[in-house]
Amino acid sequence: DTAVSQTPKYLVTQMGNDKSIKCEQNLGHDTMYWYKQDSKKFLKIMFSYNNKELIINETVPNRFSPKSPDKAHLNLHINSLELGDSAVYFCASSRLAGGTDTQYFGPGTRLTVL
Amino acid sequence: GENVEQHPSTLSVQEGDSAVIKCTYSDSASNYFPWYKQELGKGPQLIIDIRSNVGEKKDQRIAVTLNKTAKHFSLHITETQPEDSAVYFCAAALEYGNKLVFGAGTILRVKS
To answer: For position A65, what pLDDT does the model report?
Structure first.
């Protein structure tokens, strides 16, 4: 059973398009995250939700809009895609909010903007 | 906010040798220090963590040491094997903070 799953695994699109990435966790966790990993492998948090409430928004452009319909799902919608948005996006979850609990990462979505 | 520096950025070792990766953190209030391993094409996975009330923790071939005074912590892998080849990330979190801050990662290559 996959603990944290993301779809799609690969996403290739043109500049200016709008796209969504979906994430689901079956661990029963209360907290979910979106991370961006750039070409140099640097891993940076974008958003965090706890019980469907936004608790972290790390100065991400307004073009990125997360949505958590329930505790098990956290989706990421990106408007007007730019070249600089090309990266691997990871979803993660943890039992507790804050940074002091084990985070379980999904397999990642590689976004390529042409 | 918290800042975590990680060295080296790449590390090549011969199979069977030891590997050491070091990290420093800036906020003395940080009290949780996990290490994640990321294999090619996969998401990071926790391999070991340490909290500020202990100085060392071991799990088979891996160990983590923490020096709170100097604000640095290290990952030690003994008897390295080819399957240890991956990117390793250190991270730090404040006890009452809201996020984990990651180091820049170390690419470990174990040559057989």
So the answer is: 95
